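The pair is quoted verbatim as follows:
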Amino acid sequence: MVQDTMAQTLHGIPINAYLMLSAVLFSIGVLGVLYRRNIIVIFMCIELMLNAVNLLLAAFGAYRGDSNGQIFVFFIMAVAAAEVAVGLAILVMIYRNTKNTDIDELSRLKW
């Protein structure tokens, strides 16, 4: 009985708390991507969604007692770093051309 209770918590915090926090963070990120028009805020919301997935993978990895979750977190962080580097380079070029970071203004860049 005591061992079952310990298996359902990660150092005193139940796995449900990690699930709920990850779901809230991911939902905030999705809403930010859908409703915001600023490219910088959209990139930040995408990073928030990736961090929510990282939190969930790390929690499940610790819950199961294996390191596969941490390995996936490492790869997601590498992809997120590449996304930030490429995305910010594109953002700088867009800002140089339009002097604005609004997505609706990008239609001016068409031929």
Remarks:
- Residues 8 and 22 are 17 Å apart (CA to CA).
